[in-house]
Design brief:
7-stranded mixed sheet; two-stranded antiparallel sheet; alpha/beta; homodimer; Rossmann fold
Chain lengths: 209, 209
């Protein structure tokens, strides 16, 4: 198996770090680039420490988002990436870039989609009073967190836990689920159900790790 | 603890049976009536076998749904019920009846709300391609499956399972979760968070059974 991936980050980059630690350079998976939406994103420094090519694509440096996404798409193509991973990328991608990368972008979202798409998903879930929360890794389509679901994991919302504690649990699950999804894709074990393209079939149910 | 409950059914009544077997006559909880939305509902026969007063309130027998719900509300009041449990009741209740029973109606729904409200929730979840499904017990408000959540339980959707197998798992969880919610309410362990009435606080976390 082999897979060249580009990771997009906006913030801390802890999911990027989980990918660097958990899949980069292992079993043919290589992170060939990290792009950030803002120059202060600590994720850029994590990339540099791991000697991964890093670049910043801030909308302010371009005429508009479409122009930025065009340049970003060119850069991704230049790295010969086969998969783009949104790991805390906080901006909507333009329709053009999503179409250009069709079927080869995944995202990790801190909720059990289709519940609580969009920003502040954990806070949304807490305010709604759910008793079960979770994490979703999904393909990115033109909508907001609406693409086909690859992996999900649920957890019981701890009684009277602080938002910070719940975020900690969510992030812990993200740091397992996202590398797992990348490994499954690298093994070519992930495919769409020909009968319903919303349904993602995982061929190896007992993938280790 | 004590609690007089009325159970509303439309179909098989397996959740009613779980309540008859799991809570009726135990620890002060009494099912004081079962009402069905149609005369053929097998739930009515289950009630009669358990010697519980049973009645049918079919819309066709009334001028309209409001009239039916008025009569149903009178009947519920006549049984001195403190809690109404929708256990496979397939019809929307009129706003008037929901307001009349304010805060004292619960429902069991075969999905992890707020995902997949309404009819055919299991089929909706499968068609959406979720990897985690579940069951919710919630208070009923004026919306469709939109009221405050009391209990939820998730399960990993088995790979390539038939709809029938998934329904079996869901019903198994329903048959545990609904009696558990009724027991918690009987113990007065369920209350709304004064800071956010959408959030339901469960005072006894380690309730047995």
């Amino acid at each position: 198996m082999s897979l060249r991936i580009v990771v997009l980050v906006s913030g801390e980059g802890t999911n990027l770090q989980a990918l660097i630690d958990g899949v980069h350079g292992q079993g043919g998976i290589e992170i060939v680039g990290v792009a950030a939406s803002r120059p202060e994103a600590p994720g850029l420094e994590r990339a540099r420490r791991a000697e991964i090519p890093a670049a910043c694509f801030e909308i302010a440096d371009f005429a508009d988002r479409d122009a930025r996404d065009g340049a970003l798409g060119d850069w991704i193509e230049g790295q010969s990436a086969e998969l783009v991973v949104l790991a805390g990328w906080m901006q909507l991608l333009s329709r053009g870039l999503v179409e250009r990368l069709a079927g080869a972008i995944i995202n990790v979202h801190p909720a059990l989609l289709p519940a609580f798409p969009g920003l502040h998903a954990i806070e949304q879930a807490i305010a709604h009073g759910v008793k079960v929360a979770g994490v979703t890794v999904h393909f990115v389509d033109e909508g907001v967190d609406s693409g086909p679901i690859i992996l999900q994991r649920a957890f019981d919302l701890p009684y009277a836990a602080s938002v910070e504690r719940i975020e900690e649990i969510v992030h812990g699950i993200e740091h397992e689920l996202l590398p797992r999804a990348v490994r499954l894709i690298a093994k070519r074990a992930v495919r769409r159900d020909p009968k319903n393209p919303r349904v993602v079939l995982i061929e190896e149910e007992h993938e280790s790790g």
